[in-house]
Design a protein that fits this description.
With 76 residues, the protein is α+β, with helices and mostly antiparallel strands. It has a domain at 31-76. It is built from two helices and three strands; from the N terminus they run βββαα. A three-stranded antiparallel sheet has the order 1-2-3, with no helix packed on it. The radius of gyration is 18 Å and the shape is extended.
């Protein structure tokens, strides 16, 4: 098991076992202008990928294309 539990705890996996830590407080973090540009680009990429995964026709076409290129697909 790993990931966030609500907005209170985070479960992290290490070689020696699982560790439960507090959820990070990012309210005081200020992003630079460069980081904001990159975050915006990433948000657009996520939006695009979600539009592919939600559309069965596009999803099938991309899965077929990926299989041709590298023999496997990561689309779920």
């Amino acid at each position: 098991m790993r990931g966030a539990i609500g907005k209170e705890f985070v479960v992290k996996q290490y070689s020696y076992g699982a560790v439960i830590t507090a959820y990070p407080d990012m309210s005081g973090v200020k992003s630079s202008a460069f980081q904001k540009v990159k975050q915006g680009a990433f948000a657009k990429a996520v939006e695009y990928a979600q539009s592919i995964v939600r559309n069965p026709v596009k999803k099938k076409a991309y899965a077929k294309k990926l299989k041709k290129e590298n023999g496997c697909t990561m689309l779920r």
